[in-house]
């Protein structure tokens, strides 16, 4: 199943076609891409960008494998696992710089520490993104029963899960909107346990980068413009996202998408001069590789320069 956000808009006739697949359903997590298209930034860059979404049960990696997408977004750990499993992909821009993954439990459950997870049912997403939560549990020697979930919090609400893996900008707020006060939940941010792994990055196959470097550079530049515009015009961006979600029959509301946009922008890293960073830094890369090696008990001799091949010039990391 695919969810589409395509169709030609003014000024796109004759532009280079490029298909982009975010790694989840339409939502404010990807607002910058929708804004870049809606504002004509991609068209101005000479691109006709089609945005397609996987369903909640499909990993966007498959879209690179079968040629349905030229560019996809992925969490860093998911991308490195795909590389380890033989997919010849490279990171051309790192949009997110911080982790937003967390566990939640109800305070009346008695689950107050990670050690309390032992033997408990922990919900984790079916379509990927489970590597970091699983890695944290392995690093602590904690055995849990992983329960695959799709895109809702219903099983947790019904008591079918003891703990749920959530994103700070998404499911955590969904739980609040169902009527659970924040002080009724225990929260466990993975970043607080040494797993502050950058998340959303842009990935292509190696041959795509070799064949279309200028198109990819134009795509990243226009995307960063889209994120800057979304940050400066948040109510417009929220409405654009909500309209898109409704068009694709994905449940939505403005309050939640507003929360998501604000939190997602906080995971991005912006310099004092207002330049949005798109770099994957060596320390973050090596830390992520070390997590994979230690928790998977494998050697993973991938080199930073072979994995991160930015299409934009490097920008110094803010202090």
Briefly summarize what is shown:
With 319 residues, this protein is an alpha/beta fold.
Radius of gyration: 19 Å
**Counting H and I runs of at least 4 residues, what is the number of helices?**
13
Molecular shape: globular
CATH class of the largest domain: Alpha Beta
Number of domains: 2
In terms of DSSP E residues, the strand content is: 15-25%
* H/E element order: EEHHEHEHEEEHEHEHEEHHHHHH
Q: In CATH terms, what is the fold-level topology of the largest domain?
A: D-Maltodextrin-Binding Protein, domain 2
Taking the sheet with the most strands, its summary is: 6 strands, mixed
Description:
With 319 residues, this protein is α/β, with parallel strands linked by helices. The protein has two domains: 2-98 and 198-307, 3-Layer(aba) Sandwich (D-Maltodextrin-Binding Protein, domain 2), CATH 3.40.190.10; 101-193, 3-Layer(aba) Sandwich (D-Maltodextrin-Binding Protein, domain 2). 38% of the residues lie in helices and 18% in strands. The protein is built from 13 helices and eleven strands. The protein has helices at 31-38, 41-44, 61-65, 76-84, 131-140, 154-157, 171-177, 206-211, 213-232, 234-247, 254-267, 282-296, 304-307, and strands spanning 2-5, 16-21, 47-54, 71-74, 89-94, 101-106, 121-125, 145-149, 163-167, 185-189, 201-205. The strands form two sheets. The chain has a six-stranded mixed beta sheet. The chain has a five-stranded mixed beta sheet with strand order 8-7-9-6-10, with no helix packed on it. Helix 5 crosses helix 12. It starts with a strand and ends in a 12-residue tail after the last helix.
């Amino acid at each position: 199943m695919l969810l589409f956000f395509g169709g030609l808009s003014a000024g796109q006739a004759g532009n280079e076609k490029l298909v982009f697949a975010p790694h989840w359903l339409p939502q404010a997590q990807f607002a910058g891409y929708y804004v870049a298209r809606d504002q004509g930034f991609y068209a101005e860059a000479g691109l006709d960008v089609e945005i397609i979404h996987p369903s909640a049960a499909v990993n966007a990696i498959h879209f690179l494998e079968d040629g349905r997408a030229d560019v996809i977004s992925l969490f860093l750990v998911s991308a490195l696992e795909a590389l380890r499993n033989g997919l010849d992909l490279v990171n051309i821009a790192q949009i997110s710089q911080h982790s937003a993954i967390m566990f939640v439990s109800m305070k009346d459950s008695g689950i107050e520490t990670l050690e309390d997870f032992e033997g408990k049912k922990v919900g984790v997403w079916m379509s990927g993104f489970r590597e970091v939560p699983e890695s944290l549990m392995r690093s602590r020697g904690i055995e849990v029963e992983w329960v695959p979930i799709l895109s809702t919090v219903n099983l947790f609400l019904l008591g079918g899960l003891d703990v749920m893996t959530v994103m700070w900008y998404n499911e955590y707020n969904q739980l609040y909107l169902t009527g659970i006060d924040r002080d009724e939940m225990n929260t466990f941010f993975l970043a607080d346990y040494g797993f502050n792994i950058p998340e959303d990055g842009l990935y292509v196959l190696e041959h795509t980068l070799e064949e279309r470097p200028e198109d990819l550079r134009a795509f990243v530049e226009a995307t960063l413009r889209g994120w800057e515009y979304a940050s400066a015009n948040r109510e417009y961006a929220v409405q654009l996202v909500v309209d898109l979600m409704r068009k694709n029959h994905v449940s939505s509301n403005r309050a939640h998408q507003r929360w998501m946009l604000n939190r997602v922008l906080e995971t991005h890293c912006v310099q004092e001069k207002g330049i949005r960073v798109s770099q994957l830094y060596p320390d973050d890369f090596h830390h992520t590789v070390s997590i994979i090696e230690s928790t998977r008990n494998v050697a993973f001799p991938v080199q930073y320069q072979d994995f991160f091949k930015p299409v934009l010039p490097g920008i110094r990391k803010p202090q």
